């Protein structure tokens, strides 16, 4: 029996980021669960998120041949049973690096624009890291907004009906709270054993979200 394949898509501009670390943690857990893992680090692979003429949709030709780079990424998506984008939350959305990957690769005629979606039957788990804490007045709105944008606006729109969005809170290790009046408060940064324990808890939460999604 062929192992299922998971495409873990890491989107961060630093190799030493929490996002990159969480991507590695999830990749390791997926391997333990029997998945063959394709770890796509967009920064490390030099992916350019800017749209190009070659990758611009042609609404009169859904069979347009996109750039070789984009076609290579499309093939990795096709080969994956499970897709797990891991990203920092910027302004209630994904960073430009991941947004550009969606713009260029999840393109007309490939992932949408056909009566039978090519990506139907795949599963997708979005994992974001956010500086906001769960006690923040804005936390629920943030999660709801990401869910509508990513699960409904991207996954479902491209034929992936089995999808979820999870957000890991307090990713900066220093409490950031916005109250009901819009006042921003940032606490002291964690240090020493407290900081180590905090990030170990984030690792566990990320794995818990993955295991819950895998069922």
Task: Give a nutshell description of this structure.
The chain has 215 residues and is α/β, with parallel strands linked by helices. It has helices at residues 18-32, 68-79, 96-105, 139-155, 192-214, and strands at 5-10, 36-41, 82-88, 123-129, 162-168, 176-178, 184-186. 36% of the residues lie in helices and 18% in strands.
Describe this structure in words.
By secondary structure, the chain is of the alpha/beta class. It has a single domain (5-214), classed as Rossmann fold (3-Layer(aba) Sandwich). It is 36% helix and 18% strand. It is built from five helices and seven strands; from the N terminus they run βαβαβαβαβββα. The strands form two sheets. It has a five-stranded parallel beta sheet with strand order 2-1-3-4-5, sandwiched between helices. Helix 4 (139-155) links the parallel strand 4 (123-129) and strand 5 (162-168). Helix 1 crosses helix 5. The mean pLDDT is 94.
């Amino acid at each position: 029996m062929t192992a299922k394949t998971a495409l873990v898509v890491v989107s961060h501009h630093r190799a030493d980021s929490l996002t990159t670390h969480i991507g590695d943690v999830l990749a390791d857990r997926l391997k333990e669960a029997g998945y063959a893992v394709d770890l796509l680090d967009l920064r490390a692979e030099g992916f350019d998120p800017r749209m190009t003429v070659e990758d611009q949709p042609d609404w009169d030709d859904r069979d347009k041949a996109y750039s070789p780079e984009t076609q290579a990424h499309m093939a990795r998506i096709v080969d994956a049973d499970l897709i797990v984008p891991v990203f920092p939350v910027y302004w209630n959305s994904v960073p430009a690096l991941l947004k550009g990957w969606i713009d260029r690769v999840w393109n007309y005629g490939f992932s949408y624009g056909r009566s039978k979606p090519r990506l139907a039957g795949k599963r997708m788990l979005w994992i974001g890291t956010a500086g906001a804490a769960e006690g923040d007045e804005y936390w629920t709105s943030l999660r709801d907004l990401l869910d509508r944008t990513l699960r409904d606006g991207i996954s479902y729109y491209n034929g992936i009906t089995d999808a979820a969005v999870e957000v890991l809170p307090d990713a900066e290790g220093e409490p950031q709270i916005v109250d009901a009046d819009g006042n921003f408060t940032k606490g002291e940064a964690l240090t020493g054993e407290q900081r180590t324990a905090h990030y170990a808890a984030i690792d566990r939460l990320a794995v818990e979200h993955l295991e819950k999604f895998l069922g």
